[in-house]
């Protein structure tokens, strides 16, 4: 665990720091003794404690699993302790839910108890100014933030957003043509092609600004820097204060994590506020902007400062809300597309069946469209299986219960951190035969979207649980699923995905081993891997180039470069 960076000159303060840290350690030790030995959970006599792995004094189960990749240990514990069990980190209770029916019961039917969040001190309270919706506790603020996001990501907005997905996927195909035709192409290029596609869509929806060139776009580079800093701040174990809340009461001079955040806020907030100011100046000039930041600005135009605060339309709320779409969707959807390519590379039989489904629906004279997808359901099956097989967030984003509860005779303490263990539920062998295999045929006859299937009464009839549950279900799931489906259909229409070969013509081996071939942090992302894209015909190549030229003309009319001068 890290305390954070310390920029002060400490030459003359070493003894003071030693005294303060020693005193803090003693105070925290006393707190742990009280919390672990003297303060006992008052479990009603009629209930039992949840099962779980044996704990050690004071630390609980800390050190028994990799905090960046806990999925394998949690899967082993599920086999040993059952569909719901507890883990202790210090005095904090964590609960792993490993059964779809229990998850539906707790997160949906009892959602009024389980729809909150436990917020981190550094990542949420300090760096996010308590305004990032993903970690906002249940209440009026979260409900308001979710409605604001829903206005741009709802099903009713799906058709409006389709035009951006349709246009951006044309550039994606053109970039894969360039990748296929260049001897200097690198494995990381594939990742960047997908990242530009997803980031451009989310930037358009957030700020009314599209990304022509990922490497040259100053606005998105700065936003990615902010995203990376936030991702670091919410990493388990990154800051000692998140595990030792008593450290919050130290003098400011001895809180390097807070000083670090203040340095970040000092440049981040002026940047975000500058975007908001520019949008409002454009509004005054009558310049159109389709982004969320414009919508929220319009809603508050005639409000007083007090009313803006009450309705969470103050400057900081709008600034962080506009960032939310990028943080939630820019990388996760792109990673899913990388998983799709990896699956097609390793399972050529599934790739061939997907291509056949597209070819039965669309000839070589035009690109597949959203309207074609219902007639090529195997694409839907491939995408569902990709999301089940390799979920981007393995344990899901944790819920928190606001009151004590009971399930099946087990006591659930108030303020527990409750995970819907996506990795385990998506691998339930009673639901998915040979769950570790990639097998789209398991969805034969399934035609509903992920959202439609998330609402079915029987939890076992759901396709997968990758998007979460209840009031905390991914607000952008419609956009994400349809983005992946369109891109999958167009890639299979245009290209053969084949193994890369070395200078001697030998196939370069690729693996999907989740331990070795993936980077694990807040999300699980495949490491760049060598792959070859081979365009299927000269005619299809010309269709791609012509469709991209048409897209460029459309983009000129849409005026989506309002922040092109941001460096």
CATH fold naming: Cytochrome p450
Outline, from the CA principal axes? globular
**Low-pLDDT windows of residues:** 1-8
Number of domains: 1
For the residues shown, what is the average pLDDT?
90
Number of strands: 11
Tally the helices.
Answer: 21
- N-end to C-end Cα span: 35 Å
CATH architecture: Orthogonal Bundle
Rg estimate, integer Å = 25 Å
Short recap of the structure:
The chain is an alpha+beta fold and 567 residues long. The protein is built from 21 helices and eleven strands.
Characterise this structure:
The protein has 567 residues and is α+β, with helices and mostly antiparallel strands. The chain has a single domain (145-558), classed as Cytochrome P450 (Cytochrome p450), CATH 1.10.630. 50% of the residues lie in helices and 7% in strands. The protein contains 21 helices and eleven strands. A four-stranded mixed beta sheet has the order 2-3-7-4. Strands 1-6-5 form a three-stranded mixed beta sheet, with no helix packed on it. The protein has a two-stranded antiparallel sheet with strand order 8-11. Strand 5 and strand 6 (410-412) form a beta hairpin. Helix 7 (158-181) crosses helix 21 (538-558), helix 8 packs antiparallel against helix 15 and helix 15 (332-346) crosses helix 17 (377-389). Heme binds at residue 474. Its cofactor is heme. It comes from Exophiala sideris.
